[in-house]
Amino acid sequence: MLASIAGFSLSGIGGIGYRHHDWHMTSTTLFHLIKEPWPVWFTPEYLGSEFGFKEPRPFIYYFSYYLPAAVIGKLFGWTAGRLALYAWTCFCSTLLFILIINYIKKQKASVKPLYYTLVPVYIFLMGGLDWWGHPLYHTGKDHPDLWTFPFVLLTNLRVLYWSPHHCLPVWLIAMVILHNVHSTTVIKLFLPTCVALLFWTPFGTVGLAPFIAWYLLSLFIHEKVTINIAAVVLSIFFVVIISTFLFSHSLSIPIQYTLTANWITDKSKRYLLFIITELAIPLILLLITSDKLKRTEVMFTGIAVSIIILVSPALRLGFWSDWCSRTGMASQFMLYVLVLKNVLTMNRSGRNFYIATSLIVISCFTSLGELNRAINEFKFDMRELPPDIRAYGGGTYVTNQVFGKPDSFFFTYLARRH
After folding, report:
1. Is residue 52 within 8 Å of 63, Cβ to Cβ?
2. Which residues of 112-122 are buried (b: 16+ CB within 10 A; e: fewer)?
3. Which residue has the higher pLDDT, 409 or 114?
4. pLDDT score recorded for residue 261
5. Which of 175, 193, 182 lies closest to 224 in space, CA to CA?
6. In the predicted model, what is the mean pLDDT of residues 353-362?
C-alpha cells in the first residue's frame, strides 16, 4: 500500500501530482459523474453552437473505474470524490502487487523478502527502449515512448498515470489467469468478470482475450469445466447490456489499417524499430532465464509476442494509437511479470543474473523522463475544478469520442432519456 501511495502521489489522480494531457479528460469524467444524474446527458444549450448539436447527447466513456469514487462524490462532495478515486487506484494497484508477489512465491524459490520490495518499483518503471530512439530520430514528440508513432506501447509509468482505468483491470485479470492456469482451478465468476471487463476497457479486453481463451481451453483439456448456470446467465446479461451500451457510441473516430502494402512500404523501418524497442529486452531476459519458464508460460510468451507484432500495430484508431497501446498492454505486462519472476528466482551468483539485472535497469530509463516531468510539474489541489467537457471545443478528437447516439437501443429502451 505504501508503494502505491508513493507511486501515485505524482500521478495527478485525485488532484495530487502533475496535470498531464489526459488528466483533464479523466477529471472531467469524474466531475460530470458526480454532478449530473446518471446516465449523463449534455444539452445543446450547455455545449453551445460550436458543437452543432440540435438535441441532447449521452456521455459515453470508460465509466467503471470512476463509479465507486463518483458514488462517494455524490454523497460527500467533489473533494471527497477525488480522494476516493486516489484511494481506489491505490487499492487496485496494491492488490496487483500482492498478486505478483504471491505468484513469485508460488515458484518455491529462495527469494529474500527485501527483493519483493522491488516488485512495485519494477512494475511502475518498466518500459521499452524508447529512451535511445527518441533523441536519435528527433521525432518532436513530447514523450519518448511516442517516437515510433503510430506504433505505440507506453511505459508502465505513463499508462498507470494516464490510463489507470485501462491498465489496472486488465493487469488484475492477467494475474488471476497466471495464478490459476497451472492448477487449472475453476473460478465460477471468471467468465462474467471477463465480460464485464468490456465496460472498463473494450480494447484492453481484446488484447487480453487470447490469454482468457487459452485459460478456458486448458480447463477443457483437463476436464475441469463444469457449467455454472448462474455464471452463464450473468455473462449473457452483461453481454447484452454492455454491447448495447458500447454500440450506442457515435463511432465517429477514424480508422486506418496500418499493416497494408502502402503502410508497410512507408512505415516498415519504424515498425521494425517498434518491435525491437518493445521486445528486445523482455525476450533476451526470457531467453537467458528460459529454464524458469513452465510450458504454459512459454505459450503465454508466444501469444504476447504475436499480439505485439501482428494485432496491436494492425489498426490506428483516432488521432492517437489507442488500439495499439491498449490491445498491447496485457501482452506487455505478461512479459514483464514473467521476466520479473524468472530474474528474482534465478541463481544470483552467476553471470546471467548480473546481465539480467542490468537489462532490467536499462529498461526503466524511458520512465525516468516521465517521472522527471511529474516531479517538476507537481501540483497539490484537491479542490481544483477540471475544465468543462465543452471547453475542449466542437470537432476535436477528445469530444468526438465521448458522445453517443441519443436514438440508440440502449438509450431508447434500457436507460433514462434526457
Report:
1. no
2. eeeebeebbeb
3. 409
4. 55
5. 182
6. 89
Q: How confident is the model at residue 227 (pLDDT cuts 50, 70, 90)?
A: low
CA–CA distance, 332 with 301 (Å, rounded to integer): 10
As a three-state string, the secondary structure of 184-210 is CCCCCCHHHHHHHHHHHCHHHHHHHHH
**Cα–Cα dist 85/68, whole Å:** 8
Chain Cα centroid distance, residue 396? 23
CA atoms within 13 A on the CB side of 209: 15
Q: What is the pLDDT of residues 160-171, one digit of tens each?
A: 998 899 999 999
Q: Which runs of consecutive H residues, i.e. helices, occur in 222-260?
A: 229-246
Q: What angle do CA 302, 303, 308 make, to 5 degrees?
A: 100
DSSP conformation letters of 284-342: HHHHHTGGG--HHHHHHHHHHHHIIIIIGGGEEETTTTHHHHHHSHHHHHHHHHHHHHH
Which residues are CB-contacts of 141 (< 8 A; sequence separation ≥ 6)? 134, 147, 149
